[in-house]
Amino acid sequence: MPKWDTSQPPPATSTRPWRRRRLLRAGLAGAALAATRAPLAQPALTRVLRKISIGYGVRTVDSAADGFFSSIPIGLGFFAEEGLDVDILPMAGATPVIDLMANGKIQFTTHATAGLMTAVGRGIAMQGFICQVPDYFTSIAVLKDGPIKRLEDLKGKIIGTNAVGATAVLPVRAALHKLGWNPDTDVQYLAVGTGLPALDAIRRDRVQAIVAWDSIFAQFEYFGAEFRYFRPDPIPQLGFTHASNTMVETMEKDPALVAGMCRALLKSVVVIAAAEPDELTRLHFKLYPAARPSSLSDEEVLRFDTLRLRARRQFMRLQQRVFDRTERIGDVPDESIASLRDLLAAGGEIPVPLPVERYFTRRFLAEADRLDIPALIAQARAFRA
After folding, report:
1. Mean pLDDT, consecutive 10-residue segments, the chain of 385 residues?
2. Domain identity same for 372 and 251
3. Is residue 23 assigned to a domain?
4. Which of 237, 256, 280 is the last residue of a domain?
5. Rounded distance, CA 338 to CA 352, Å?
6. The whole model's pTM is what?
7. Are strands 158-161 and 209-213 parallel, antiparallel or unpaired?
């Protein structure tokens, strides 16, 4: 995988300014910012917000690259507009958050879609209702100056993962299976997390490779690492990478809740496309101060997290979805869903390939057609945290 191209921002469209306002509530309600003609987010000062939770399949919400389901809809008041007070619950892997949702403890999950497919495969009646990251962003990386020059050199080696049972590993296991390997015995897996301990693990040869995604590798490169990336077929052809999901029962019994969540998340995709990366980073660490790298100066934090955010934006098809409007925001072709499904089935990660509608519904994506995208773009471009 080449270095992330951070030089080309999305095109500007309009310049209608925003006025800044103070945070409605520290941490959760966030900053509801007003436009000159009408507020982008209606402040919910006189009503009781409905408390709900979104489970995230990673331990920390540590970057503005995660802002499309966290700091943006919280900080810009998109959740509050829908009458929601949303708690983001990060955990190690998609499986535990899916199990919480299946048991009625939380209402939504957001994570890599391999976890969604394996859950459906084991009988959990859930569906994705918005795909925020359609292009596949996971790679296998080894140190550029290390002894491993080819994917085949990894046989018998240890691969670092973000967590035990991490969804990022599932397509890699399936790809290794297609090479004729036994993914359970020909390599080993070790949970090393997604922060600097993971980078230290590969530098100290505790692991010989790392499976991770765009923003994680951007972080490692910021700290001086140089990698050789492996993306064995059919990983480059995969799609349907990250989705937000709920139970089919919730869609049937409370469709207004799912529609409101979908609207908030759709608006957040527009903002992550159009707002200045530095401002989204400032917003993120206002709402998640514990995630801010304490060893870095303010200037270094902005440079560091902007790399992670821009790395993520390259896989979100923002030009087509937000600026050109040639693709619907939040949607993904059936072929992309099927490509990931078939790979997981071929590798034995799901028992049988099911129809794509078992994994994803477009029922709520008509909300995208009702948004004033040009106004959102203009307001996002003028946003200051």
Report:
1. 38 32 32 31 64 94 95 97 97 94 98 94 97 93 95 95 77 83 94 91 97 89 93 83 97 98 98 97 96 91 92 94 97 94 85 96 95 96 96
2. yes
3. yes
4. 237
5. 12
6. 0.78
7. parallel
Spatial strand order in the sheet of 108-112: 84-90, 50-56, 108-112, 239-247, 126-135
Query: Does residue 246 share a domain with residue 222?
Result: no
10 Å CB burial of residue 178 (0-12, 13-18, 19+) is: middle
- The CA distances from residue 28 to 124, 261, 286, 316, 353, in Å, are 30, 15, 11, 25, 39
Residues 6+ apart with CB under 8 A from 227: 1, 141, 142, 143, 144, 217, 220, 221
- Could you give the number of structural domains in the chain? 2
Which residues sit opposite 160 in a β-bridge? 190, 210
DSSP β-ladder status, 188-191 and 158-161? parallel
Q: Report pLDDT for 167.
A: 66
Question: For position 46, what pLDDT does the model report?
Answer: 55
Write out the H or E segment, with its range, that includes residue 327.
none
